[in-house]
Specification:
Pfam family, one: FecR_C
CATH architecture of the largest domain: Sandwich
Number of helices: 8
Organism: Maribellus comscasis
Strand content: 25-35%
InterPro entries: FecR, FecR_C, Ferrdict_sens_TM
Helix content: 25-40%
Number of domains: 3
GO molecular function, one term: sigma factor antagonist activity
Oligomer: single chain
Protein name: DUF4974 domain-containing protein
Shape: flat
């Protein structure tokens, strides 16, 4: 089948016009090779650009249908993925989460265990169950690796941000990040470990211990506390945990957050690039509020009417540049 034929199949599927037999063929074709995956991701990108300021519930339902079929054919994978919409571009990002999950499984040649690698593209979230019954919510632009079966220690590796609801067990649960380790037995908490950003662990319930990677300094958190790591220095403070965990419910909460920090969160949330003009006044603007189902175009207008700024959007590169008025 030619490339154009495949593109036509993808388009028909998105429109809900593909037969069940053709859907199964498309699913098998996508999983066959990297080349097929890349073509599919290219079509995803085209769709993503078209959906910047519109919603398409029907399209999301079609992808949920395909996801369900994927799970039925991948019974050896224990983590059931459930995708949540993120504002107006959810359907396109669901493709990314789904496809990353298909392509991510890698087998360790020296072991019978399989390493599961779950990644979420920018603008998407996913939640799934680990082999021990613990539940993970993975935020946009993040990756979690874990074995298909845990040994004496329940060990996972995180890049980015995730909320964990860890099932109580005598075996310790350890999250490895580039900043250090978080160790628990049974608790719920949020870990943010994005590269070149401040590391944060926010505890909702239970008790967790954090060990800084370089100094090996160890601190223990109690509910309502947060540990930060910056330049190998670890500190603990009391916080409103909702501000740091609401993302898993599809909400972004800002409380007197300065524009440069808010921009980083918006970039991951909506899968866009935001550039601030070289004007020091922009860094002094702060925002408070909650975003839930707003499209990115609506968010831009909200920013504009609540502060002296203007912006320019480049549709080809999905880049927004913000200026001080």
């Amino acid at each position: 089948m030619s490339t154009e034929d495949i593109k036509e199949l993808i388009q028909k599927f998105l429109e809900g016009k593909l037969s069940e037999e053709k859907e199964e063929f498309l699913l098998s074709w996508i999983k066959k090779s990297e080349t097929n995956k890349n073509l599919f991701l290219s079509e995803q990108e085209n769709l993503q650009n078209n959906l910047l300021s519109s919603t398409d519930r029907r399209l999301e339902m079609r992808w949920r249908s395909l996801l369900k079929k994927t799970q039925n054919t991948e019974k050896h994978q224990k983590g059931k993925i459930r995708l949540r919409r993120t504002a107006s571009v959810a359907a396109a990002f669901i493709l990314g989460v789904l496809f990353t999950f298909w392509a991510s499984e890698t087998r360790n040649v020296t072991s019978a265990l399989v390493t599961q690698n779950i990644s979420t593209p920018l603008g998407a979230k996913t939640n799934f169950e680990l082999p021990d019954g613990s539940v993970v919510w993975l935020n946009s632009g993040s990756k979690l690796s874990y074995p298909s079966e845990f040994g004496d220690i329940r060990s996972v590796k995180l890049t980015g941000e995730a909320f964990f609801d860890v099932k109580k067990d005598k075996k310790h649960f350890v999250i490895s990040t580039e900043y250090g380790n978080v160790e628990v037995q049974g608790t719920s908490f949020n870990v943010k470990a994005f590269k070149n950003e401040v590391f944060e662990t926010t505890l909702v319930s239970g008790i967790v211990s954090i060990t800084e990677k370089n100094t090996k300094k160890r601190v223990t958190l109690h509910p309502g506390q947060q540990a930060d790591i910056l330049e190998s220095k670890i500190s603990v403070k009391n916080v409103d945990t909702e501000l740091y965990t609401s993302w898993k419910e599809g909400k972004l909460i800002f409380r007197e957050e300065y524009l440069p920090s808010a921009v980083k969160r918006l970039e991951r949330w909506y899968n866009v690039t935001i550039e601030l003009d070289d004007d020091p006044r922009l860094s002094k603007i702060w925002y408070s509020g909650t975003l839930e189902m707003e499209s990115f175009s609506e968010v831009l207008e909200l920013l504009k009417v609540t502060a002296p700024i203007s912006y320019h959007y480049n549709e080809k590169t999905r880049t927004i540049r913000i200026f001080y008025d």
